Amino acid sequence: MSVDYREGEYALSMGAYIQAFEIFMMVEREQSEPTFLKCCQMVLANQISGSELKELFEKLEQQMIRNNGRATYNYGLVLAHTGQNAKAQEVLNQAALLGIAEAKTALTKLLLTGSVR
Question: Which residues neighbour 38 within 8 Å (Cβ) at sequence distance 6 or greater?
Fold first, then answer.
């Protein structure tokens, strides 16, 4: 675990969500194949919104275009969480096509119940 990641976890534990988000985004920029997992978990926990959410969606969209399966899957989950079910279905289907098995399960749940949870 990198020092930056630990700093992000600390900021998160203190309720400094914007700072934690910024730290986790910085950590992801250093990865060869970013997944934005921690930032997506923050969305699912309702810890970010507004400009941070827009920034995250832009980064996830870029990764989807690059055929990054794990980031595409995470994007589908946060889209569903934010109520963008039609787009979430498309994105989760793309993740499934990229070989992410969990995406099929999430897509099925979304289609049957309207939620991925």
Answer: 5, 8, 24, 27
Neighbours of 53 (CB within 10 A): 16
CA distance 27 to 71: 14
As a whole number of angstroms, the distance between CA 30 and CA 55 comes to 17
Q: For 58-76, how does the pLDDT look when each residue is reduced to its tens digit (9 = 90+)? A: 999 999 999 999 999 999 9
pLDDT confidence bin for 49, thresholds 50/70/90: confident
- pTM as predicted: 0.92
CA 3 to chain centre: 22
> Which of 96, 68, 67, 77 minimizes the C-alpha distance to 39?
77
